[in-house]
Predict the structure.
Amino acid sequence: ANAADLDDAEPDAAIDLVRYALTLGGVDEDRRLALLRLGTSLATQLADHGQAAGWASQWVRMARSNAEELDTPEGWQALSNGLSQLGRAEAESGRHDAARDPLVQAVQIDERLADELDTAEARRTLAVGLSDLGDIDLALGEPWTAGMTFAKALEINERLVAEEGTPAARSDLLHVLQRLAEANNEVGQHSAARDQLLRCVQLAEQLADEDGTWLTRGKLSVVLFELANVEQDLGDVQAAREHVAQSVILDEQLVGELGTWQSRAELSSSLARLGDLEFGAGEIGLARTRYARCVQLDDARVDRRETPEALRKLAFDLERLGDAEHALGELSAARGHYERAADLLGRLPGSAGQPDDVEQLRLLTRVLRSLANVSDGEQADLIWARVLELDAELRRLED
């Protein structure tokens, strides 16, 4: 199976070619290892992470044998790459415990190679491995451990920026600073997280000025959104509003340029966040305008593809809009939004209209309680009875 054949094929057909090539005689070890790497890459393209882990496991076994026999930097680097791919595949499959060990092994190899080779490329590989390992520790609920790992990656990335000064080096630094800020925020070190995110904003603005692409402006929007969350945790709601307002402006630009469903989803999220901050500040009319735009964007997303995630987001924003209408005394409009939100939640997977997911059930209970508060007579009584049933079910699931 040569490169041209594989490039022209669909990934699933290309994987069949790779499997066939591995059965042929005369395939030397270097080519066999290259085929295993290719199989891992193709399975990843297909988002078949279980299959990707299988390919990567074969890659690791072969690379380990070669590395131990030959003991060359190239051999150990091939093993590290295989271990990293195995860890990423396991993580994408949700098996974070299984992902950690290969990533730890990869970092140990990368640390040794960085010391021995003393090259920028070796240090960059180590920084990426540390960042991946930190991500796993965060997913496993170990923010202190993750923070220490991200701090090591940060030190390396700082050196790479000083040595190279390239946009790619600054982008890597931005990424690890974001992750370190998240870890610090999770352990309650909000001031440290704010300082790190403020620096992220500077880096993201510099990157956006340098190339002006939608990707770098998207990064800036995300950082501003994260910074707003930390500012609110620190009690500076006005600063949080300013950061989210900047994020909304960027997201509006990206929707105008890209028009993708993902860009619209990002805009809906930032608008909802801004609306929440305005609602909390008593600016209900402004908040209602934001929520109405969110519902418009969410409706278009659901019309395109009715996924559970899209339905939940629409229901959540309908609840927000209903709350704003209720606060403004528009009870009929509020009732209509709550009724629609409850109907959407009832269409999601579950038994007897009750979603299996606890958060989803909590949202449905909250929506129905709000609906009962704007309803009259027998209808209100029926809704309250349903709320009591759901409250009991929710307590049972939470226990």
